[in-house]
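pls design
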């Protein structure tokens, strides 16, 4: 999560992909959503808005499916939702388009961070 939260989207994608390949069920869906979100972050920084929205929309849809099948992870305790993904992506695209030019150094494009869920079982 630290890689993602500090703008290292490609590196976060690579780290989560290794775990995703070994996972199943809801955990696999959740990791796929995070990987797609990372891809959207990379595309925002490349100023490829159509690709960023496509990846972000797929991330939100995948996250929705993972939440519907909440059998393994306490996704009801997440601090962000599929709606946060779409809203954050739109804000990131607006911001990057306002600041023309691609910055080579990693930087955050999303207005939210990922954090482990801390809640009691329901």
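designed seq:
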């Amino acid at each position: 999560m630290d890689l993602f939260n500090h703008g290292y989207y490609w590196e976060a994608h690579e780290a989560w992909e290794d775990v995703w390949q070994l996972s199943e069920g809801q955990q696999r869906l959740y990791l796929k959503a995070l990987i797609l979100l990372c891809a959207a972050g990379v595309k925002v920084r490349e100023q490829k808005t159509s690709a960023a929205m496509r990846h972000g929309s797929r991330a939100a849809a995948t996250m929705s499916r993972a939440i519907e099948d909440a059998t393994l992870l306490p996704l009801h305790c997440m601090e962000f939702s599929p709606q946060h993904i779409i809203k954050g992506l739109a804000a990131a695209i607006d911001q990057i388009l306002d600041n023309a030019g691609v910055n080579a150094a990693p930087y955050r494009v999303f207005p939210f961070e990922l954090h482990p869920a801390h809640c009691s079982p329901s």
